Amino acid sequence: MFRYPTKHLLSSATVLLVLGVLIPALMMLEVLPLSFLLSLLGYAFTVSGAFLGYLGIMSLFFERR
Asked: Where are the domains of the chain?
């Protein structure tokens, strides 16, 4: 149903969600500098990872149906 395989959607969602957590954590530990752009990037990674994960799970259900 979807253009990309389910494995690719779920693996890219996992990577994006991990990066979305890792960037703010590194900013709190002062490894990365505090900046609005990095905060926005971490937020964008989290939102896009959640969206791709949702699409991956939907495609998994449609494949097994």
From this structure: 6-64
